[in-house]
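User: I'm writing a tutorial on reading structure tokens. Could you give me a worked example: one chain, its sequence, then its tokens, then a sentence or two explaining what the tokens reveal?
Assistant: Sure. Here is the example chain.
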Amino acid sequence: MQIPLEFSQNQTQKQSQKQIQKLSQVQIQALNILAMNSFELKEEIAKALSENPALEVSKKQETRTKEKITDYGKYGNFNDADKFQQLLEAQADNSETLQSHLMHQLNSMKLSSFEHEISQKLIYNLDENGFYGSMIAPESFLPSRTEKNFQILKKCIERIQRMDPVGICCKSPEESLYVQAKQDEKAPKLALFILDGHLELLNPPEKEKVFRKLKDFQTEYHKKMFGMNLLLDSIEYNLESVQQAIDYILHLNVRPAQGYVKDTISNFEQPDVVLIVEKKSGGISADSFENGIVCGDENFHFQVKYGSGDLPELQICKDFSFDSENVQKALIFIQNLKFRESTIVLQGCAIVKAQLDFFLHGEGHLLPLTHRQIAIQLQIHESTVSRMASKKSNRFIQTEWGLLPVSYFFLSGVSSVDGKQKVSSQQVIHVIKNILAEQERSGKSISDLQLANLLLEKGIKIARRTVSKYRALAGIENSYKR
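And here are its predicted structure tokens:
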């Protein structure tokens, strides 16, 4: 019997060639150190000091200026980083604590040191739902309970309540619902009345029963409070409008902090790494990222320095030369620390170069920027940039315009009307601020829809809901409150 051709089996031999790169223990250690935060790095340094007698601490300092690294040892130059970065395969972790998310917004605001300190304490005093009712009383954070300080505290609380997500830093879920509604210019007036201390009227949330309770409340109020007006008196309501108010309230977020990772850190946020960017007089002809130098314009250039905080500086013991094995291990460990420092400075220089307009002119001049753009420029793996710029990486850049998280400089963009370029979200917020300031000077108050139309005239096409989000991020109240 002849087997059909399609069912026949043949054995063939194929020769293929693959290039596989194995990571050395030295390279693995370098990558692990690069990914560590300051707390983990302190522990690693302490471990190395206890295990290797060839290592010693040369000095401790609050900040340390990066010197030029001319000998990269086995790493060659920083273009080689991409060859062994594959160890860090995991993508950037986008999870974020509520406190970190709020601190990113707070650090971008220009506040007095006292307001910043009070706001920071308020943020770290929130429970996992974003409320302070079960935590320390906010008044406890005041150095003295003067009327002026109470006003500042109130201002700080209201500012945080308007941050994203709207409705946090409230005493209770009931207060949060009211704050959310106040920030929405489309909130029904009847819903605002119910949320302002009258939520018991919604039990049960059936329109006929709620309507009857509203009438009874109105009648009883006027029996007790002769001649005093009630907000409800100015609201015309019927069964239909009552149902609309019920639906609106039931769609509000009773847990505005939902979706954020629980913060397990009890202390206030301390930066892992601070890159210090200083504007220096005098133009230079070319960038020198290895020296932390970035061209500015004909009058200025920028110096990027690495601030190590309280990390100790290590050196080889002068009287310990008889054990060559431990000396070699100590040298490699010190080189790995320098590799971490230099890699972070290189990324800082690339960020300064990409966002040069911001470092020259400040708020409103950030451009859309992705991790991939920086990775391509430095010829390193994208995950290296992602880990530094992740919102939970706790790494900051000290600028002329304030202490800002690295993630602040990476922005998505919205397309312009002609579609030829993208405008960053920060640029949109800056334009919104300018438009509203101009309208307020003329005595006008415009809605988010009108604001969206004015943005369209300036070549920025975004929806009303997006305008509302950007306005809230800017800490600006809606037209109902302005």
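What the tokens reveal: The chain is about 40% helix and 10% strand. The two ends are 92 Å apart (CA to CA).
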